[in-house]
Write a structure and sequence with these properties.
Length: 524
């Protein structure tokens, strides 16, 4: 009996110990060292994976938030059950002489607890607190898949599309991850009712975050925001419009959704079967897998370009590779591209639009019918710039013969936004049937004078003021082509929609801050 009692006391202690260990975080024993996959749910039922390598020594945490090409170091503590760590973004390299320094990345703070082998984490995102659950994974699970064989390089035939720069709407700039079936239908309705379609805008393009995963046969599936892509395409077509979609050559899109890696032919067939007319193909995680050089990028894009052509459906092919490996010099066309991004992402701010827009003039000579430089989509009407700045945006993109892909909410446009996006006189510049590149006439004191000849012998001259105050600008008649240097010329202001006088040998105007005077000069 004594013996039993003794035994049962120790059993009880053991049981109690186990109970305590089981229900309470056992601070002393737990070591978080290892690889973790933190899954953050998106509102559409999908998840975003973030991988960490954590090293724990005592109560101190260090390691890496795994990002390619370089991870971001983390530092923090695991104390009395509470996890706290922050990313330590690298110091940006010193800017080249004369350039402004790049802002340092914002550190991200993670707080949470350890429960049942999982890390329950919280972080402050742009749209509020984001919660994620991290589970331990193997190192291999955090690595990108091995590259797949790429096709031998060849020049794909011209698909005959986009003889003038594509015009349409895309969901990303306004909606990002919040785009859904209803928004796309609403945009198709508004494209017609607002007059945008009459003005020439045709494509309704769904950007990232429509994807879910793959079914048992490997077919790409849509998440709950897009219950029936074929029905949606039919709806858009019923309005006399065309529809575009988005994917990536990598396993994940830039927003962390399913990409076309290893399913290029299958996805092209799916897109064609849905009735898709335009594909934006965004490099994203393709860069984690493949080499970042012109032949490799060409092969990646050729793979999908060929798959699209083999569907025999006319599908505009929009390369999104942020201007890497001088895509405009040839490989964009060879891989079947109708347009290619020449820069990083635009944002709805003067400095972003200005920097992108004016940097494009030097590569304008590489565009040609069917194969356009794409300095990213329009921000007109999104609220971050003044009307003068948006007129500069529209004027520059039109002079560059850039794709005119609106990025605002077409259902709620102000009259001013409409007057900018639907200015038929600037659209006619963008859509000129015989492409001749814009050239810089002069660039002094932050005043840019640009000129582009049109097919009918007229020229467009843009006087742009990049200063923060109104500035006088001018050009001499002698810069004009021979047919326009005589006195018998007609000068039209394409924003005021009226004829103006070019008297004497110099044209002078006061241009508003960040604004433009856009003139069409033709012979009378
Ligand atoms: C990249 C592209 C953007 C947009 C997002 C979507 O950043 O450059 O235009 O498509 O991905 O995730």
């Amino acid at each position: 009996m004594r013996h039993f009692f003794r035994a049962s006391t120790s059993t009880l202690a053991l049981l109690l110990g186990c109970f305590l260990v089981g229900t309470q975080p056992s601070f002393a024993q737990t070591n978080l060292s290892g690889y973790w996959d933190a899954r953050t749910p998106n509102p559409d039922g999908t998840f975003r994976d973030t991988y960490f390598e954590i090293q724990q020594s005592g109560e101190t945490l260090s390691g890496t938030l795994i990002r390619r090409p370089n991870g971001i170091p983390i530092t923090g503590t695991f104390k009395e059950g509470a996890i706290h760590f922050v990313t330590v973004p690298p110091t940006p390299p010193p800017p080249p002489a004369g350039a402004t320094a790049r802002p340092a990345q914002r550190p991200i703070t993670f707080d949470g607890t350890y429960e049942d082998g999982k890390l329950l984490l919280q972080t402050q995102g742009r749209n509020g607190v984001m919660k994620s659950v991290a589970e331990k994974v193997t190192k291999e699970a955090t690595l990108p898949p091995a590259p797949l064989p790429l096709p031998e390089l060849k020049d794909l035939p011209d698909n005959g599309l986009a003889r003038t720069p594509p015009m349409g709407w895309n969901s990303w700039n306004k909606f990002a991850g919040r785009v859904d079936d209803a928004a796309v239908r609403g945009m198709a309705d508004a494209m017609v009712s607002s007059g945008m379609s009459k003005a020439g805008y045709v494509y309704i393009n769904i950007d990232d975050t429509w994807e879910l995963g793959r079914d048992a046969n490997g077919n790409i599936t849509t998440n709950k925001k897009f219950p029936d892509m074929k029905a949606l395409a039919d709806y858009v077509h019923s309005k006399g419009l065309k529809i575009g979609i988005y994917s990536s050559p990598g396993p994940k899109t830039c927003a962390g959704y399913e990409g076309s890696f290893g399913h290029e032919v299958q996805d092209a067939k799916t897109f064609a079967a849905w009735g898709i007319d335009y594909l934006k193909y965004d490099l994203c995680s393709g860069l984690d897998i493949y080499k970042d050089d012109a032949p490799t990028l060409q092969a990646i894009y050729q793979k999908m370009g060929q798959a699209l052509q083999e569907t025999n459906r006319p599908i505009i092919y929009s390369l999104c590779e942020y201007g890497r490996a001088s895509v405009w010099t040839g490989w964009g066309t060879k891989s079947g591209g109708n347009l290619w991004r020449t820069t990083g992402d635009i944002s709805d701010r003067w400095d972003s639009m200005e920097k992108i827009g004016f940097s494009q003039i030097k590569i304008a000579e590489y565009a040609k019918p069917g194969h356009w430089n794409d300095p990213d989509m329009l921000e007109i009407g999104n609220g971050g710039m003044t009307a003068d700045e948006y007129r500069t945006h529209m004027s520059l993109w039109s002079l560059l013969a850039a794709p005119l892909i609106a990025g605002n909410d077409l259902r709620t446009m102000t009259d001013e936004t409409k007057s900018i996006l639907m200015n038929s006189e600037t659209i006619a510049v963008d859509q000129d049937p015989e492409y001749k590149p814009v050239v810089s006439v002069s660039s002094e004191n932050k005043v840019e004078v640009l000129m582009r000849p049109l097919h009918d012998g007229s020229v467009i001259v843009g006087l742009f003021n990049r200063n923060d105050a109104p500035t006088d600008a001018q050009f001499a008649r002698s810069i004009l082509p021979a047919n326009l240097t005589g006195k018998k010329t007609k000068v039209r202001d394409l924003w005021k929609h009226e004829d103006v006088k070019l008297e004497g040998d110099t044209f002078k105007a006061t241009v508003p801050s960040h604004g433009v005077v856009l003139l069409k000069i033709s012979s009378r």
